[in-house]
């Protein structure tokens, strides 16, 4: 294969397996997605392990490269201290996005991957504008380019749910942190 036919790599921060197949398919039209699971927000450990197992199953089945960051539970609790009672879409979530996207951009830079994006905007509970702003700010610090997307658009969320069912993924009923589990 010559260089002209090679698609550029994009580091795709994946929040969980169910949110991934539709986004991976879409990005694959123009890029080679490299999956990156870094989600220190997910609690408790059993839930974290379950979500890792499912994204590993997806990557194995599709042949996509997958890297997993550390669990970093304490880092998340330290970062959101004082914001425990914030509602979803509030300040705690902004800190959570920043933590995850900063690590993804750091990893992309270390691997010479120029583009970064995230599955997070698939969720109807998350504001794409906020995620894209934080992504762009973080990417600029690491000399990579954040692809601003809103994957829930164009029926993206419905297609995501449909594809997750085809893969028979475990689908969690809360966002990830212990605070969202209580809501
Ligand atoms: S509700 Fe979701 S996005 Fe917000 S802090 Fe918790 S895990 Fe992170």
UniProtKB/TrEMBL annotation:
Transmembrane segments: none annotated. The keyword Magnesium does not apply. Catalyzes the conversion of epoxyqueuosine (oQ) to queuosine (Q), which is a hypermodified base found in the wobble positions of tRNA(Asp), tRNA(Asn), tRNA(His) and tRNA(Tyr). It comes from the Bacteria. InterPro entries: QueH (IPR003828). One of its GO terms (molecular function) is metal ion binding. Pathway: tRNA modification; tRNA-queuosine biosynthesis. [4Fe-4S] cluster binds at residues 15-16, 93, 96. Its EC number is 1.17.99.6. It is an enzyme of class 1 (oxidoreductase). One of its GO terms (biological process) is tRNA queuosine(34) biosynthetic process. This is Epoxyqueuosine reductase QueH. It holds the Pfam family QueH. Belongs to the QueH family. Disulfide bonds join 175-177. HAMAP family: QueH. It comes from Candidatus Auribacter fodinae. Keywords: 4Fe-4S, Disulfide bond, Iron, Iron-sulfur, Metal-binding, Oxidoreductase, Queuosine biosynthesis, Redox-active center, tRNA processing. It catalyses: epoxyqueuosine(34) in tRNA + AH2 = queuosine(34) in tRNA + A + H2O.
